[in-house]
Specification:
The complex is a heterodimer of chains A (about 70) and B (about 400). Chain A contains 2 helices and no strands. Chain A has about 70 residues and is mainly alpha-helical. Chain A has a domain of about 35 residues. Chain B is mainly β and about 400 residues long. Chain B has a single domain, classed as Porin, CATH 2.40.160. Chain B is built from 1 helix and 20 strands. In chain B, a hairpin with a 4-residue loop joins strand 4 and strand 5. The chains are: A mainly alpha (about 70), B mainly beta (about 400). The interface between A and B is large, with 59 and 114 residues.
Chain lengths: ~70, ~400
């Protein structure tokens, strides 16, 4: 649990400092590239599903956390 | 997490709003919906092999194949309202499920799962906020589920900061099927399962070429969390029982994404997740993908993922549990393991589409376009001996 707390606070602290950054819309050529999206790709949805079933750990990546037994 | 920890986390989060609002000198307005209907047709084939099937108590074939298809349609109703549909079906064959009843080749050796979710979202362009609700269902031969949820998203700092909060609940029901030799002697305590999921995501632009996201989630599950047709064989030939697990489980994953565009033709997409639950599993997952832009429209993306986890407190292999234990499982998905996934993604996405129809209306509208072709192929291996191959495609369409 200590590791989890450390991770949360480090991320929040970094986020607080970095929120001073303000990149203008016309400067976002690279950020708007579809490979820069801060989410898993749509085509990855099937991989996220089998990883959820084949590993005890799941979540925090937009995957499935309920609604199906995954019992096979 | 105690009260002090919670308050400190809240203060830090509120600090984000204060710092960024204070420097907002010009008015920012989030993007309105376009008049373009978008649809993605996704299809995948997955095949695995292994010899630790939970149906047969941690030994026996895990051979499984799954053919899955998903359709995602997003329909803007106007500049602020939109509905979307996420639906699909899986067809799978499972050698281990066929071993629920060894006497006959049961219908459960192959099955179809159908699922659909309908979502509605509304934007407030002046407040840079989006509200959403969704309902869904999932159905297969021994398992049915309905779900509902909501989400809230706020953008600020010229769109450089974004906070997203989501919540959803799943209400599931089993049709209880037990291993043939244990009928009618065993009984599961309930046939229901509920899952409650809360998620908070924060996204931040760090430089013109670097952005990060952090996701925190909690998942609380209650009800029948074991699988009624999983067998557990006890030590010293003391017989067998169905898998038994506690009736509640709390999962807490925290994930961080960091995406960087160091050169004109290369992107680095990285992801790290720490996971912990009260079944005793702690896990670390790391993933790196490096999209290489061969041309403006063509990208190849090698990827690698590493996962490691500790075993659940309730896991032991074949014939190592004792009947005196309260909870037991021989499901290797809950064992200590390392896994590796590697593969290649390709995407072809020309500016004016791969294929496009002629305008159906006189004002140059009513154009159906195949915008994107995308594919991913990969190999997955687990330290328990399980291996899998998979391939997926995505056809991205638009209509305006």
């Amino acid at each position: 649990m200590k590791t989890l707390k450390r991770l949360i606070f480090t991320a929040l602290a970094c986020g607080t400092l970095s929120s001073c950054v303000s990149v203008k819309a016309y400067q976002k050529m690279y950020l708007n590239d579809q490979d820069m999206a801060l989410s898993a790709r749509k085509v990855e949805v099937f991989e996220t599903n089998f990883e959820t079933y084949r590993e005890g750990a799941a979540g925090a990546n937009g995957g499935k956390v309920g609604g199906g037994c995954g019992c096979n | 997490m105690n009260l002090k920890t919670f308050l400190l986390a809240t203060c830090l989060l509120l600090g984000q709003f204060q710092l960024t609002y204070a420097q907002d000198s010009t008015r920012y307005q989030m993007k309105a919906n376009t008049n373009e209907i978008e649809a993605n047709f996704l299809s995948s084939y997955y095949q695995q092999e292994g010899n630790n099937a939970a149906v047969t108590g941690g030994i026996g074939t895990e051979e499984l194949s799954d053919f899955a298809n998903v359709l995602i349609v997003n329909i803007p109703l106007d500049s602020v309202n939109a509905v979307s549909l996420y639906g699909g079906a899986d067809y799978y064959t499972s050698a281990s499920t066929d071993n629920i009843d060894n006497n006959v080749s049961s219908s459960s050796s192959y099955d179809l799962r159908g699922f659909a979710t309908v979502s509605y979202s509304r934007k407030n362009l002046f407040r840079n906020e989006t509200y959403g609700v969704h309902i869904g269902f999932s159905a297969e031969y021994d398992y049915n589920s309905i779900s509902a949820g909501g989400s809230y998203t706020k953008e600020w700092n010229h769109g450089n900061s974004e906070l997203n909060v989501q919540g959803q609940a799943f209400f599931d029901r089993w049709i209880l099927i037990y291993p043939i030799e244990l009928r009618p002697d065993v009984e599961a305590p309930t046939a229901q399962r509920q899952s409650f999921n809360g998620q908070i995501n924060f996204f931040q632009v760090l430089t013109k070429k670097l952005q990060a996201g952090i996701s925190g989630e909690f998942v609380y599950m209650t009800g029948l969390l074991s699988t009624p047709f999983h067998r557990v064989y006890f030590a010293n030939d003391q017989g067998l029982d169905i898998e038994r697990l506690p009736d509640s489980r709390l999962k807490i994953p925290v994930g961080v994404r960091l995406n960087y565009f160091p050169f004109d033709r290369l992107v680095l997409r990285s992801y790290y997740r720490y996971y912990q639950d009260d079944f005793g599993i702690a896990a670390n997952t790391f993933e790196l993908e490096t999209p290489i832009k061969i041309s403006t429209f063509f990208t190849v993306s090698p990827f690698y993922r590493y996962h490691t986890q500790t075993a659940s407190d309730y896991f032991a292999p074949y014939q190592q549990h004792l009947p005196s234990e309260e909870f037991y499982t021989s499901d290797y998905d809950l064992s200590a393991l390392d896994s590796h996934k590697m593969g290649l993604g390709i995407r072809y996405s020309p500016l004016y589409g791969v294929l496009r129809s002629k305008p159906m209306r006189k004002n140059e509208t009513g154009i159906l376009m195949l915008k994107t072709l995308e594919a991913r192929f990969g190999y997955y291996s687990r330290s328990t001996g399980l291996t899998a191959y998979f391939g997926s495609i995505n056809l991205g369409f638009s209509f305006k």
